[in-house]
Write a structure and sequence with these properties.
It is built from ten helices and nine strands. By secondary structure, the protein is α/β, with parallel strands linked by helices.
Length: 310
């Protein structure tokens, strides 16, 4: 790392991943960092707050800022999510705008583009999910349309899921960052605490196991964390829902679904911790928690800020 820092061509900076819900931002973040640090789901609004992933190379350091999908806010939680997006656009050195190339563009894409125009930031356009395209030539009219909308530094077709064109993307990002020393230690991968990573793992399993049965109004809070031994941890987490009917869905018949959520989550948490753990989940009804500032603060869904190293 010292050799890289001493090189005059070393570059570093913050890069925002921005796009509509389900554009593939969190999938791309996890792939680029090489470790799962963001919840991934095909459900809208899976990402609720700013997540930073750090990539350290010999020629530069990229601090990726994963942001919630751009949408029109209806609750305090959603207003905070959009504040995170706007704050990230203002505070980063480069923007990567992801669009789902497998679906047609619409008003949501125009809304994202307008936010980008207001920021006037250097930006790369990433046409994601090209693995879903039977005919790659269908990208041409999409590229032509986007080129009329903004002055892109580069347009790069990728597949975040398959890892296609990822090396090209990383080289392009570094090339467009300002010269500077690393912003974080070489071995740091994310700014997220272990507690936050655990709650995101649990929430991801809830989204996976409940399917379309429940609105996306669940949240997870760590109530208690006990380091019993170096090789064993007890974790107690509350799953918040807004209605009694939602609670029944999450728990399932004979508590079968809650057990499934717990088992799937515990396996991934143990891999993350590197040792055994006891994961205890319980479900609480908290009416309109999406509008309660104190609970949102506890979950880390802040009003919008970008952490920078002084």
């Amino acid at each position: 790392m010292k050799q890289a820092v001493e090189t005059e061509s070393y570059r570093s900076g913050y890069v925002a991943l921005v796009g509509r819900p389900n554009a593939g931002k969190s999938t791309l973040l996890n792939h680029l960092v090489g470790q799962k640090i963001a919840a991934v789901s095909d459900k809208p609004q899976t990402t609720r707050f700013r997540i930073q992933g750090v990539i350290t190379r010999t020629d530069g350091q990229i601090v990726l800022v994963d942001t919630p999908g751009v949408h029109k806010p209806g609750f305090e939680m959603n207003r905070r999510m959009m504040a995170v997006v706007q704050d990230a656009l203002l505070g980063v050195d480069l923007v990567c705008l992801l669009c789902d190339a497998s679906v047609s563009t619409g008003s949501g894409d125009r809304f994202v583009l307008e936010l980008l125009r207001q920021s006037n930031k250097s930006a790369l356009l990433l046409l994601n999910k090209i693995d879903k395209l039977a005919d790659k030539t269908s990208l041409l009219p999409l590229i032509d349309w986007y080129r009329t909308q903004y002055d892109w530094r580069e347009v790069i077709p990728i597949s975040a899921l398959r890892g296609s064109m990822i090396d090209v993307l990383l080289n392009s990002i570094v090339k467009h960052l300002p010269a500077g020393e690393p912003l974080y230690p070489e071995d740091e991968l994310t700014d997220q605490s272990m507690r936050t990573l655990v709650t995101e793992i649990i929430r991801e399993k809830i989204l996976r196991t409940t399917g379309e049965e429940i609105p996306y109004v669940t949240a997870v809070i760590t109530e208690k964390w006990e380091e019993v031994r170096d090789d064993f941890t007890r974790i107690y987490c509350a799953i918040l829902v807004e209605r009694q009917s939602h609670k029944k869905i999450v728990i399932g018949k004979g508590a079968a679904r809650l057990k499934e959520i717990g088992t799937l989550a515990r396996q991934e948490v143990e891999h993350l911790l590197g040792h055994s753990c006891h994961l205890q989940l319980f479900v609480k009804v908290e009416d309109e928690w999406r509008n309660k500032s104190q609970l949102l603060d506890e979950m880390g869904i802040q009003k919008g800020w970008l952490k920078k190293t002084e």
